[in-house]
Design brief:
Order of helices and strands: HHHHHHEHEEHE
Structural class: alpha+beta
Number of strands: 4
Number of domains: 2
Largest sheet: 4 strands, antiparallel
Radius of gyration: 25 Å
Strand content: 5-15%
Strand order of the largest sheet: 2-3-1-4
Helix content: 40-55%
C-alpha cells in the first residue's frame, strides 16, 4: 500500500466529526485507486471497517454516511476529474464515471451532490452538432442603459432565454449581449422585447454571418 495513505491513528481528537468523516472518505478513494487486486481491496475493506469502529468509539462519531460530509469546501482532484468527464459528456452515468475513475458509485454521487449544493455545478447543457449550430441565427447587441436602472435591466436580460451570454463592458457601451435563435423573425422579436426593457436607452446590433475560428 503506498506510503501516501493517511493514517487514521493521526486523527486528532479535537477534529470535528465531519472532518473525520471526510478524512475517512478520502482514504477510501485512495485505496480504490491504488489497490491492484480484488483480494487487496476486500482485505482493505475489512481492515477499514475495523479501524472505523475504533474511530467511531473514540471520537463518538455517528455511523458513517456520505450525506454527512460537509457541503461547502475546496475542490479536490476527484472533483476536477468528475467535472472533466461531465464536460466531455454531460449525460455520462454515475456508474460509467465510477468505472473510469476507479472509485465507488456512492463516492461519485456524493461529490456531484456536494458540487451542486455548493454552486460549483449549476446545471447541465446540450452541445449542438455542427450543422444544427450553423442553422442558428446569432448576433451581438451592444446596450446603453441608465445608471439607476442598470441592475434591474440586467435581471430582466438574464431571464431572456434567447440571450446566451451577457457582459458588462467599458467604453461607449454598458452591456454586450449574445443572442442565439432559430430564425431571423425570432431575432427581430427578441431585439424588440429587449429594447422595451426599462432603462435601456440605446442599442447597436451585429449579426454573425460565419465562423472562421471556434463555434
Amino acid at each position: 500500500m503506498p506510503s501516501a495513505f493517511p493514517s487514521f491513528w493521526q486523527l486528532s481528537i479535537n477534529k470535528s466529526r465531519y472532518h473525520s468523516a471526510l478524512a475517512f472518505e478520502n482514504l477510501h478513494v485512495l485505496c480504490i485507486k491504488y489497490c491492484i487486486s480484488t483480494a487487496s481491496i476486500l482485505a482493505f475493506r475489512r481492515m477499514r471497517r475495523a479501524i472505523w469502529r475504533i474511530v467511531v468509539r473514540v471520537l463518538q462519531i455517528p455511523s458513517y454516511n456520505p450525506a454527512c460530509l460537509p457541503i461547502v469546501g475546496p475542490m479536490n482532484s476527484l472533483d476536477s476529474e468528475i467535472i472533466s468527464l461531465l464536460k466531455r459528456n454531460a449525460r455520462m452515468s454515475v456508474t460509467k464515471m465510477a468505472q473510469e475513475l476507479a472509485v465507488s458509485r456512492v463516492t461519485i454521487d456524493t461529490h456531484i451532490k456536494k458540487m451542486e449544493k455548493s454552486g460549483v455545478i449549476t446545471g447541465y447543457t446540450v452541445k449542438l452538432g455542427t450543422e444544427e449550430f450553423r442553422r442558428m441565427v446569432s448576433g451581438w447587441i451592444l446596450i446603453n442603459v441608465t445608471a439607476s436602472e442598470e441592475e434591474r435591466a440586467i435581471e430582466q436580460l438574464v431571464n431572456m432565454a434567447e440571450i446566451t451570454r451577457l457582459h458588462t463592458t467599458n467604453g461607449k457601451w454598458d452591456l454586450a449581449a449574445e443572442i442565439q435563435v432559430l430564425s431571423l423573425d425570432n431575432f427581430d422579436s427578441t431585439i424588440s422585447r429587449l429594447r422595451q426593457v426599462k432603462g435601456i436607452i440605446d442599442t447597436d446590433t451585429t449579426l454573425l454571418l460565419s465562423s472562421r475560428l471556434g463555434e
